[in-house]
Amino acid sequence: MFDVKNIRKDFPIFAEQPDNFVYLDSSATTLKPQSVIDAVAGYYSKYSANVHRSIYTIGEQATAEYEGSRGKVAKFINADSHSIIFTKGTTEAINLVAYTWARKNLKAGDEILLTEMEHHSNLIPWQLCAQETGAILKHIPFNEDGTLDLSEPEKWFTHKTKLVAVIHQSNVFGTVNPIKDIIKMAYDVGAIVLVDAAQSVPHQTVDVQDMDCDFLAFSGHKMLGPTGVGVLYGKPELLEAMPPFLGGGEMIRTVSLNDSTWNGIPWKFEAGTPNIAQAIGLGAAIDYINKIGLEKIHEYEQELLNYALEKMQEIPGINIYGAAQKRGAVISFNVENIHPHDLAQFLDNDGIAIRAGHHCAQPIMKKLGVSATGRASFYVYNSKEDVVRLCESIEKTIKFMGGSK
Amino acid sequence: MDDLRDLYQQLILDHNQNPQNFREMIDATSKAEGHNPLCGDEITLFLQIENEKIIDASFKGTGCAISKASASIMTTLIKDLTVNKAEILFEQFHKMITTGETNGDMGKLMVLAGVYKFPARVKCAVLSWHTMNNALHGNTELTSTEIS
Ligand SMILES: Cc1ncc(COP(=O)(O)O)c(C=O)c1O
Asked: What are phi and psi of B89, to 5 degrees?
């Protein structure tokens, strides 16, 4: 059995917040267990030295912990440590590829293939890149049920397709895209593939070797870790051939006044003092997830998801966006005649935190014909009771607002 | 719930369900668009101004109850006001929403007095007003509550 009662005890925020606190916005960022907070504080209070530069004891300890975290991340997604670059988050990881690999390899007329369900962080970097290189953007559309329309692959995957950048799990619909099929179609036309795994890595097993993607990006703060740290995985041969991203300390091998040579991977891409405490915190978050077991977490979330879908569908006037077979525990919805911001305000009054807005996916909202939706997303600390409370509070709001008649 | 009932008074709910002057105006003499990028609220405001006087006001768009009610009430209040009086009302309203302070009789607008206790909702209440202010000054650039 999944012991959510005990798990909640690991998250100090539940003791700080009122008893009725229900957190349903883990897709935006997750709560943090004490062990992660302790790991971050531990670095600052016990061995807060810079990494890779110091001969003294605490400097070596900081380096060992920082690199140890890299090792934990690598193992978590079944990669080699050298292929793990610490960034500030998914956004920076994607931008790193857009500014280095893409600027070097793309030229006018080449095609960058995205989907219509990308997060802004996997749209804007490519818009900027296309403006500069003359590459062309194409977007695989999504169907009404929030799945990708891959019915005419030859329309999207052509000899001009040089890069495919695609979201693994949608932060709006919850849809888990058929990533291995997409990667195969991309490789068939000789394209490089970047996977935005911000919403998948925290919730399901992601094995980069099995998936065989070229690049994969995710954020620490969406998987119980601190803000300010994220990961770019890249195939070593690609990373080796890429020019550096930011210049500065750490990323160099030799420096003279007019030119320099670069450090090996991954350090070539980690200029300056990195987010040491945050990276160490991410290592602790991975330890925590491993202790429970990612498979178990995934199963439990699926159970919560099905329960929530069933209960929410009973609410009169509710409209749930997305009905993919394979999906994560993210539910976007609207209630007839009630704006999601009003709804979120009422839920907040009952201690329930949901997201209301466009979820950094304005093109999706436009296609759905709405300006915003509400969104409830779940993680290890949520319970069926949270679902019941959510539904009760929605029904109460409907009554008050005179929404659905 | 008390603060929340303060925020969502019956008059607000009424205006949300049956907004006044919720229509396009073909013969508008000024028109401005407002947008709240954070929540996606959008409003188009239409004014008919003659001899420095607002003869007619209407709006279209999507938004939460607070933004819709605020726009609805505003259009009923600014009709028949001189441009100058509407500007003064804008200043007074803005002050009330951001600080909770009122000077002078705010009349029907008092139903929005509770908004200042909800900083995240201030921009919902002021969107239509900023848009109106822009329309008065012939500023057709998109009003965005993120910058103002
Ligand atoms: C699918 C997806 N991609 C990218 C991001 C951006 O992540 P971050 O803000 O941590 O860089 C998010 C987070 O909102 C996301 O949900």
From this structure: -60, -40
